[in-house]
Amino acid sequence: MAETVGARERGRITPDEGAVLAAETARNAEFGKPVLIYPNLYLVRVPLPHNPLHALNSYFILDDDGTTTIVDVGFNHPDCEQALSDALAALGRSWDKVQVVLTHSHPDHTGNLDRIWREGMPVLANLHSFQEVKNLMEMEGNVYGPLLLQAATSEQQQDMTFGEEGPRLHVSAELLPLSTYPIMTYLADGDCLSLGEFEFEVIETPGHDPWHICLYEAAHKILLSGDHVLERITPSVSSWFSAYNALAEFLDSLEKVRGYDVDLVLPAHGKPFTGMGERVDFLIEHHRKRLEEIYELVAGGHDDIVQISQHATWRYPDWKSWPLDQKYFSMGETLAHLIYLVREGRILQGICGHEYYFRMPYDRKNLALAPGRLASA
């Protein structure tokens, strides 16, 4: 049975009560055991084996006609498949009337489609095809492969593959892009998604992922936020291309959702929470401070991705000893902040072969501008 913590036979609960119930139960709920948020809306924890996030919050929305909508599905891993199957059984539902909505393209949200997808199962996302994701990953690999080779220790180079396309980070099977390419129903900004008694507005929120969306339900004032706004975790924002200002998109998307009247945020990781405006403010300030730190590192003479990433402040010390995949994520985030500064005109970027370099701007006499001179120039 689904958990409700003292409200098993009650009618509709208020948003504040829903937040309390979810917070009390979701954090420690068993994987695959539905947690009631509202009547016909459940949170289901899905394990993420061998991943620091530990779990995904999948959301099950029930329609009176027997249709179950599952929002985000987990890794391509048997434990993820089992959790979703257990939840369907607990709710008296079956796979033959399931549709899937994806908040974005990352494998901890999509990979399980390779296991659960059946012919005719609707899949809805801000994607026309998963070929878009595969194409982007291949292009990114051409950039980050050589950079990771610079960052890797001799032992870590064994975790890389080398082919005609150059060095690549070796990833486990559950992190690979989908091999199943279901026909997609494209969700655009402003679309209305009717799921049972709920009417969700689709909000495009690129930044953490180019195809990220949130779902807003005005009648209940709830936001299914995916990875865009999380209770404790700061979502990663990466870019490997100078032309793609991912951090600017992310900050714009934060301002965008701030304009919605939200009582309860239902995130993809961590517990549901209230106070979205305060959390948005925190995230914006976090990135403002990070931008200034990265700027000062460049002003101090650190001029390439590895150096800047190595000397930036992180939660864990000794960047050189980090696992290679964590170096990959940190370098992508560092580059996203550097690109933002370049696009603001605060620093210069140079590219030589596979290497990216960053400098302070130069005046017409080819002299480096001091950090304080940029604003008055």
Automatic annotation (TrEMBL):
Q: Which InterPro entries match?
A: Metallo-B-lactamas, RibonucZ/Hydroxyglut_hydro, Sec-metab_biosynth-thioest, WH-like_DNA-bd_sf
Instruction: Give the originating organism.
Output: Adlercreutzia rubneri
Where is the Metallo-beta-lactamase domain positioned along the sequence? 55-269
What is the top-level taxon of the source organism? Bacteria
The molecule here is called MBL fold metallo-hydrolase
What PANTHER family does the entry give? Answer: ENDORIBONUCLEASE LACTB2, METALLO-BETA-LACTAMASE SUPERFAMILY POTEIN
